[in-house]
């Protein structure tokens, strides 16, 4: 039962799978690199990873005698003491520390509603340290972006009028160093975002597929094709947490930093980009309902198209036998036509936001130049400051042009998350809050008491008040016509379905 559903290899239960098995059964487990001399008795018992793909359970450390009490299950020697020096020769330096997590049963009322961790955000939260470093790197990247306009401003205002070539080279070397650090920070930021995305993708895909395989047969989806399409939409979620999307999302708030610097350099000239940015954001918000509706319709039609494809392939013989090729072809072409229609509409809406952002950026540039000329003529702004303000306004508006595509990817990811959330909410054969009876030895006694069962979506019972008893080591043949319930009894015994009424006993235990 501990290893049920785990992706076991020829090596058996690996340390990583051990941690997953422990967490599935109410324990918290971690693999840590720890010397034997640094392990405290308060943390025991722990599992020590040994050479030769073996392990042992560490129960106690006697520091006075310099020995350890362990259990080696493979040797069958039970608990025994071993010298630390002897064990260190086989110890690989890694230990698995396990502690139990108390779980309330159904008798205790939930007075304070404890919010459980969301399957998606909880997984992303495991990489919060990486995202913290990403935020720090993004702050430095946007801070370094100030170097170029400030460099240009100082060259025009101080170097050119005074022919200060020494100052020019000092500024050039300084800005080159800043650009070098900027390149390094951008590379590190992209690497960390991809690292966090890869970790989240592996954990999420494993959890989703584990939930699919653990699904109760009574809640099996009616359409395998639509169900597979919903699972495939995980790609939209994966794309949303990639470096390009996260980078754009993080860079958006830093537009305020560039506006502040523009205000510091040019004063009221900051009002020009300050008006342009809300226009882009308001238009992006204005198109959201239509964009969301278009993406949701595309999502649903894609699921219907995949349902038609997969079910036609699975039942190809039946389709040909019934002469339903034309009907299936009509469904396929109708789905493809509607997908193309809604996809084009989504692209038009998204591209309109990008076009508006580009137009606003052009108008902002012209507005800054026109307004800046008057400020220069009044002596309130230098020529270098005007050029710096133009560069900074472009830097502030650049992320705004990607808001529409970001919103499009967000709506796609949101629709996919809603579909996947429905999958994750389906009842499981082995729910985590359930307690199971441990029966290492089964004698094989089977007893049905007034068992009735009806398949989901059917009106006629497959079994109605069936009662029988099979004793241990007894050989019994169940015979009958097709549809009499022979296979249904087998499915109930192995746990694929649960009876609607009555009880099933294995060795006297009601399952």
Automatic annotation (TrEMBL):
One of its GO terms (biological process) is proteolysis. Pfam families: ABC_membrane, ABC_tran, Peptidase_C39. Keywords: Membrane, Transmembrane, Transmembrane helix. Residues 134-412 form the ABC transmembrane type-1 domain. InterPro entries: ABC1_TM_dom, ABC1_TM_sf, ABC_transporter-like_ATP-bd, ATPase_T1SS, P-loop_NTPase, Peptidase_C39, Type_1_exporter. The chain crosses the membrane at residues 134-156, 168-188, 240-265, 271-291, 353-374. One of its GO terms (cellular component) is plasma membrane. It is found in: Cell membrane. Signal peptide: none annotated. GO terms for molecular function: ABC-type transporter activity; ATP binding; ATP hydrolysis activity; ATPase-coupled lipid transmembrane transporter activity; peptidase activity. Its main location: membrane. This is Type I secretion system permease/ATPase. It comes from Candidatus Sedimenticola endophacoides.
């Amino acid at each position: 039962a501990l290893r049920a559903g785990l992706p076991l290899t020829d090596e058996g239960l690996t340390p990583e799978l051990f941690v997953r098995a422990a967490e599935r059964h109410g324990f918290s487990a971690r693999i840590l690199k720890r010397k034997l001399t640094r392990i405290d008795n308060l943390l025991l018992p722990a599992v020590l990873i040994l050479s030769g793909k073996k392990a042992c359970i560490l129960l106690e450390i006697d520091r006075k005698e310099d020995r350890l009490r362990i259990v080696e299950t493979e040797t069958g020697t039970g608990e025994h003491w071993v010298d630390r020096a002897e064990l260190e020769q086989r110890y690989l330096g890694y230990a698995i520390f396990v502690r139990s997590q108390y779980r309330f049963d159904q008798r205790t009322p939930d007075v304070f509603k404890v919010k459980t961790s969301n399957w998606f955000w909880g997984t992303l939260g495991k990489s919060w340290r990486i995202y913290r470093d990403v935020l720090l790197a993004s702050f430095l990247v946007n801070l370094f972006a100030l170097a170029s306009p400030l460099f240009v401003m100082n060259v025009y205002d101080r170097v050119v009028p005074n022919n200060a070539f020494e100052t020019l080279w000092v500024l050039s070397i300084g800005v080159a160093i800043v650009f070098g650090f900027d390149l390094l920070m951008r590379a590190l930021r992209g690497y960390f975002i991809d690292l966090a995305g890869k970790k989240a993708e592996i954990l999420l895909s494993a959890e989703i597929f584990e939930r699919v395989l653990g699904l109760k047969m009574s809640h099996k989806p009616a359409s395998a094709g639509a169900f597979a399409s919903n699972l495939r939409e995980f790609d939209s979620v994966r794309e949303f947490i990639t470096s390009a999307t996260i980078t754009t999302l993080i860079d958006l708030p830093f537009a305020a930093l560039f506006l502040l610097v523009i205000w510091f350099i040019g004063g009221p000239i900051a009002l020009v980009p300050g008006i342009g940015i809300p226009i882009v954001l308001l238009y992006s918000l204005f198109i959201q309902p239509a964009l969301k509706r278009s993406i949701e319709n595309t999502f649903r039609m894609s699921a219907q198209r995949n349902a038609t494809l997969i079910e036609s392939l699975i039942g190809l013989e039946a389709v040909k036998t019934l002469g339903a090729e034309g009907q299936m072809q009509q469904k396929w072409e109708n789905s493809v036509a509607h997908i193309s229609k809604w996809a084009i509409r989504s692209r038009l809406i998204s591209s309109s936001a990008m076009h508006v952002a580009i137009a606003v950026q052009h108008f902002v540039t012209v507005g800054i130049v026109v307004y800046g000329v008057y400020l220069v003529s009044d002596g309130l702004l230098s020529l270098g400051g005007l050029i710096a303000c133009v560069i900074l306004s472009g830097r502030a508006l650049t992320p705004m042009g990607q808001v529409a595509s970001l919103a499009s990817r967000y709506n796609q990811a949101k629709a996919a998350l809603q579909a996947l959330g429905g999958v994750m909410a389906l009842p499981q054969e082995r729910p985590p809050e359930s307690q199971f009876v441990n029966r290492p030895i089964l004698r094989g006694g089977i007893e049905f008491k007034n068992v009735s069962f009806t398949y989901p979506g059917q009106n006629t019972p497959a079994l109605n008040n069936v009662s029988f008893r099979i004793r241990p080591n007894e050989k019994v043949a169940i015979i009958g016509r097709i549809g009499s319930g022979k296979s249904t009894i087998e499915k109930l015994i192995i746990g694929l379905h649960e009876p609607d009424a009555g009880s099933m006993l294995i060795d006297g235990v009601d399952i």
